[in-house]
Design brief:
It is a single chain. The chain is 31% helix and 20% strand. By secondary structure, the protein is α/β, with parallel strands linked by helices. Strands 1, 4, 5, 6, 9, 10 and 11 form a seven-stranded mixed beta sheet that branches.
Length: 231
Amino acid sequence: MDTIAIITARGNSKRIPGKNKRDFLGKPIICYSIEAALSSGLFGEVMVSTDDAEIARIAREAGAAVPFLRSDAASDDYATTDDVLMEVLGEYEKRGRKFDYMACIYPTAPFVTAEKLKAAMELLRREDASGVMPVVSFSFPPQRGMAVRDGRLRYCYPENAMKRSQDLETIYHDCGQFYCYHVERYLACRGDLPDGYVPLVVSEMEVQDIDNLSDWKIAEIKYRMMREGEN
């Protein structure tokens, strides 16, 4: 079986300029995703899809393949991750190569590790699933959330206002790090999996959205803590 890791790294970033190649604790942040994919030993191909020549150079030096640059259509502000994945799979098929499984890995995800990728791919095969998604539970139950209405705080779900957290269903959200797919099923529905995703639950200490420079600093602190814990 042939398996591919696709790291999606567009050159343009609005909120953090040069985000995908910015230094994160001593090296470009994209290198963490590349190194995790390579060290997992899972993939026959680890490639970076980018429209940026500098990102392509960094990716190749880190050991990833960049057999082609991303098209303009898959690089604008309206292109989705699915658009990118479909383009990559189509380009490889033109070159005579098809894949059985794939991982889509984001380039600003230093918390992705070889171990997480292995666990996700094992889940994918063992559960005969179409997709696996790493998720983390909300630190505070959304069922007890409030909104500002007419200048006052109001419970969105008043029936849950006095309930204990442990009595409410645990709700999860996407970690925003990577996804694993059965390629044939993915292509058949263009990523809109009818049978959904199998969850891989991740610790909150290993999840951080990086949308601004404050997020970036928090991610560096969490990353150091994660590594210290491993050692």
